[in-house]
Amino acid sequence: MHPAVEIEDLTVAYGDKPVLWDVDLRVPRGVLMGIIGPNGAGKTTLLKATLGLVKPAAGSVRILGRPYEQQRRLVAYVPQRSSVDWDFPTTVLDVVLMGRYGHLGWIRRPGRAERAVALAALEQVQMADFAQRQIGQLSGGQQQRVFLARALAQNAEVYFMDEPFQGVDAVTERAIIQILRDLRAAGKTVVVVHHDLQTVPEYFDQVALINVRRIAAGPVREVFTETNLRATYGGRLAILGRNGAADAVTTPTPAPGD
Amino acid sequence: MELFTDYTLRTVTIGSMLLGAISGLLGCFAVLRRQALLGDAMSHAALPGIALAFLITGQRDTFTLLIGAAIAALAAALWLLAIVRTSRIKDDTALALVLAVFFGFGLVLLSYVQRQPTAAQAGLKSFLFGQAAALVERDLWAMLVISGPALALVALFWPSIKLISFDPDFARSLGLPVRRVEVLLTGVIVAAIVIGLQTVGVVLMSAMLIAPAVAARQWTNRLETMVLLAAGFGALAAFAGAWISALGDRIATGPVIVLTMSGLTAVSLLIAPERGLLWQRWRLTRWRQIGNNH
Ligand SMILES: Nc1ncnc2c1ncn2[C@@H]1O[C@H](COP(=O)(O)OP(=O)(O)OP(=O)(O)O)[C@@H](O)[C@H]1O
Ligand SMILES: [Mg+2]
């Protein structure tokens, strides 16, 4: 059986500055994988290159054994929340419906069936009461859940999420991680860009440490070690000791090029 | 009312309203995609196209000149995209650059044309500020022929256009033809500009694209409503503008229309519920009063 995601020799550059260098990554099916790395490490770029949003200088990406272009309907994407204008004149339900557009094609309007899927997805993230709200009138955590609902409406096999926990409170974070676990229980694969090192062992089965190069990737127990974290974060890491890497905490750092 | 009996006045009014509605509708996409300045650059860039079309063909036929305008506006848009994509120059800088180069070149060409001995060049200058009074019935048909297909395409691709305007990366991940729809949107905005050139001219045209959209956004949170409202505002401003300028003696219609539109926009920015400045201030003081009573 093919792995969910297979990235080989991926190199991406903006202008002449390489942002990802010769990255290999295999994501087995049915796992929750965290992508970890400092600001500007190329995590967002890795997702975008995987989804064909930026053109790699070299390398190949396969989703469930085939190029991405042939597998679009099996892939769902949650962009970084800050990537869109939340003052855009549209409603929560409309945004979630956009998750169905890949199945509808260029021209067809979403109908009753699509609305049912979208409303179910909103129910799942506990946002059904907000369906008719203008998206600008949501809190950051609610916006994040709307984006998650849109991805759920895509009804995919492989989910890519860029910092879905950014700016959400503890309760919402619990709710989101539960949804991700439900996806995994249903046999889906979820790849999540994540920033909080402390929760990595609790949330994920697998982890990839990225800083331009792939430092390490694999099961959390094997890969999430102090040595690997130091190699990823350089001197900007304070290890609090006791149980080793599980207690690793990043010190606040200036974000280069963020 | 004289407006509906006088043939010239009726043509001018209907033509202006058509222009106002179409540019208001299509301008929404320029505003929502944060490309308001692109519309500005493209309308200014039309000027050298008009002058060149005249110099090359020797015709002062409206249709020839407008084709020249469209080509120049598209060339400016493409050049701009190429600059942004291939260099580190930011898009507002690139816009300023493209606008200055094309408009400057247009003014130079225009002054050259003006010194030509032929009488044919007369009136070319009216494209600077527009000359609504010169509209004839044939121009109205030209407007319809240009705008009809543009509007039909927007209606056909509406779902894709909406998604691409909101979240182009997500649209691309779904496999929607983002690049082609962006070209289509740029194309229809060029169409709107070309339609407006005769009436309001290259300098004020961008106001007719942007102002109705900004005003409409104040009153609604739905894209569909916003687009229709913007069309309505544009038409209303054009109607009022044509009417006001007909009252006075020899007041140019185009600038009056733009002024009326600006007035509508200013009012919308002030008093629209939820988003208006005065509304927000009023609500704030109300909350304070409620707070003080406790
Ligand atoms: N469109 C772009 N043009 C030029 N450089 C870019 C572009 N997007 C990202 N970069 C650069 O590429 C590098 C990696 O960016 P990326 O967004 O992938 O980082 P990231 O790991 O997601 O960071 P963060 O944790 O801040 O989200 C950064 O140095 C950034 O400055
Ligand atoms: Mg990122």
Task: Give a description of the structure.
The complex is a heterodimer of chains A (258) and B (294). With 258 residues, chain A is α/β, with parallel strands linked by helices. Chain A contains ten helices and twelve strands. Chain A has helices spanning 43-50, 68-71, 92-97, 101-104, 112-124, 140-153, 170-185, 200-203, 220-223, 226-233, and strands spanning 5-14, 17-27, 32-36, 58-63, 66-67, 75-78, 158-162, 189-193, 206-211, 213-219, 237-239, 248-250. In chain A, the strands form three sheets. Chain A has a six-stranded mixed β-sheet with strand order 6-7-8-3-9-10, sandwiched between helices. In chain A, helix 5 (112-124) crosses helix 6. The longest helix of chain A has 16 residues, at 170-185. In chain B, 83% of the residues lie in helices and 0% in strands. In chain B, helix 2 (7-32) runs parallel beside helix 7 (137-156), helix 7 packs across helix 10 (178-219) and helix 11 (223-247) packs across helix 12 (253-271). Chain B is built from 13 helices and no strands. Chain B has helices spanning 2-5, 7-32, 36-57, 62-86, 91-114, 126-129, 137-156, 158-166, 168-173, 178-219, 223-247, 253-271, 277-293. With 294 residues, chain B is an all-alpha fold. Chain A binds chain B through residues 15, 48, 51-53, 69, 72, 75, 77, 79, 83-85, 88-91, 94-95, 98, 101-102, 104, 106-110, 134, 136, 150, and chain B through 32, 34, 88, 156-160, 162-163, 165-167, 169-177, 217, 220-223, 225-226. Bound molecules: adenosine-5'-triphosphate and magnesium ion.
